[in-house]
Specification:
428 residues, alpha/beta, six-stranded parallel sheet, 15 strands, 34% helix, binds adenosine-5'-diphosphate, binds magnesium ion
């Protein structure tokens, strides 16, 4: 376990807080289109301010090569200032004399926002002198940037070896939530994987297969699993080694005796575009000139039924190309089911996800008997696109946890130690 800000005395201390405010912008503007990463850091920032700490925030923005006016932190600082209803001073740099002076001048509860950490190439090189320059601004280092914890950079890892270093509340929550999947999940545990490529998700699937009771596959990677079973998937997105990788997963699932569900029907089209005309076909009859772009209605039904039997669900990867509405139904149905299931609700009769339950069976009861406890399942969503999908459906708050870490969450679930976490102090 890692120490958090609540395990140490922060009152009056100068705290360098690494956050991940690398938020999406409206293209060509400085308008923040999604501030959820900023809001996710508020518990830590507010906690520190309430205790009279002097808060010095650091984040990277984008991938600048040197100083880049389009990637300054001013818009994030402005949004934060609105959210905390208090002024936020923006420093001209992340290190240096002027920044030092601004940090030294902070009063209890004041907030200083350092300029984009990546304006210095030394940041990504984890340069020791650069880490020391950052560390000289503060007494304590607080890492609340889960989305950057898989990177060993000066502001995520280097400083943690110089200052007393603890986790912020967001980082702590991510560790506990994602850690519960690997360590002590309520069972049955389902892993639901989707997204574009099987290759991207191999390591995490191989790790999760060791602890899951069920693996369900959707998205583009379904093509690899279908091909591995000797089915043809037409023009579907398929990596050269996709079928081989899928076969490896399938045999690992067999060896462990866990259930592997792959689509029995899919939504196909001739091309991937907003105008493409969609149709539903069985997965043993995908036309040679079509590509699969979403799971079909029978698969939606089978997956939602299976997921309702599980007490813990990890979902990574959209079920289809949800960015286009004709291929979004699979992701929507799964998202709505999981949102209800997380609240322990039997689906309401009028709900969109029960459209297919006309057979008169209560889908929440499952095929084999009594209802699962009403407490609600633990539903954890990981992955940048999946989080975006869940958010755009308005379902994020209904889930137990939506991880703010894309790549970091995947690496964590692979069982790898993340450098930004490893460098923090342990409890006892
Ligand atoms: P995450 O970021 O949640 O980990 P990925 O990056 O693996 O998810 O995949 C997200 C992308 O996968 C989305 O942009 C989505 O359009 C795409 N995708 C989903 N299903 C398909 C499919 N059947 N064919 C091609 N691309 C797909
Ligand atoms: Mg992604």
């Amino acid at each position: 376990m890692k120490k958090t800000v609540s395990d140490i005395d922060v009152s009056g201390a100068r705290c360098l807080v690494r956050v991940d405010f690398n938020v999406p912008f409206e293209p060509g503007t400085t308008t923040i289109s999604d501030d959820s990463r900023i809001r996710a850091a508020l518990p830590t920032i507010n906690y520190l301010r309430e205790r009279g700490a002097r808060v010095i925030l650091a984040t990277h923005v984008g991938r600048p090569k040197g100083i880049d006016d389009a990637l300054r932190v001013a818009p994030m600082a402005a949004r934060l200032s609105e959210l905390i209803e208090s002024p936020v001073t923006v420093a001209p740099d992340s290190i240096g004399d002027e920044t030092q002076q601004l940090a030294a001048a902070l009063g209890p509860g004041d907030v200083l926002f350092l300029e984009n950490t990546r304006f210095h190439p030394e940041e990504e090189k984890n340069d020791p002198d650069h880490s020391a320059a950052l560390a000289s601004l503060a007494d304590i280092f607080v890492n609340d940037a889960f989305g950057s914890a898989h990177r060993a950079h000066a502001s995520t890892e280097g400083v943690a070896h110089i200052l007393p270093a603890v986790a912020g509340f967001l980082l702590d929550k991510e560790i506990r939530m994602l850690g519960s999947i690997l360590e002590s999940p309520r069972r049955p545990l389902a892993t639901l994987m989707g997204g574009a490529k099987v290759g991207d998700k191999m390591a995490v699937m191989e790790r999760l297969i060791e602890t899951s009771d069920m693996l369900l596959v959707g998205g583009g990677m379904a093509a690899a699993f279908l091909e591995a079973r000797g089915l043809r998937t037409g023009k579907s997105l398929l990596e050269d080694d996709g079928p081989l990788l899928a076969a490896r997963i399938e045999s690992a699932a067999k060896a462990r005796g866990i259930q592997l569900l792959i689509p029995t029907d899919v939504v196909v089209a001739s091309e991937l575009s907003a105008e493409a005309e969609a149709s539903v076909v069985s997965t043993d009859a995908i036309p040679a000139d079509k590509m699969l772009l979403d799971i079909g209605p029978a698969t939606r039904d089978a997956y939602t039924r299976a997921l309702r039997l599980c007490q813990t669900i990890l979902w990574n990867g959209p079920m289809g190309v949800f960015e286009f509405q004709q291929f979004a139904a699979g992701t929507r149905a799964i998202g709505e089911t999981l949102a209800q299931h997380a609240h322990g609700n039997s689906p309401a009769p009028h709900s969109a996800t029960t459209r297919h339950s006309g057979e008169g069976r209560n889908p929440s009861r499952g095929p084999t008997g009594p209802q699962p406890p009403r407490a609600g399942a633990t539903v954890i969503v990981g992955g940048g696109s999946t989080a975006e999908a869940v958010d755009s459906l308005g379902l994020a708050d209904a889930m137990t946890h939506v991880s703010t870490g894309g790549g970091a969450a995947l690496e964590f679930l692979e069982g790898r130690a993340l450098p930004g976490i490893a460098a923090l102090q342990n409890t006892t």
